[in-house]
Amino acid sequence: MEAVIQKECSALGGLFQTVIGDMKSSYPVWEDFITKAGKLQSQLRATVAAAAAFLDAFQKVADLATNSRGVCVCVVCVCGF
Predict the structure, then answer these.
(1) Enclosing domain of residue 16
(2) Which Gene3D superfamilies match (predicted)?
């Protein structure tokens, strides 16, 4: 019985060593992935902020065009309506 337990513990220890070895070798890949994901997140936030600012500015132009006949004609010509 003790021999079976010893054999199972040895197999479990070997499996643990293999898993730890694999994790150590893949750490740089995961670190690079996390770094790039953080950069992507910050760029996406900047893109969303820029798009929101653009839409706000365009809304101001549209509001101005609604109140002014000359600008309205210009916006219609630019948009192709």
Answers:
(1) 2-79
(2) Arfaptin homology (AH) domain/BAR domain
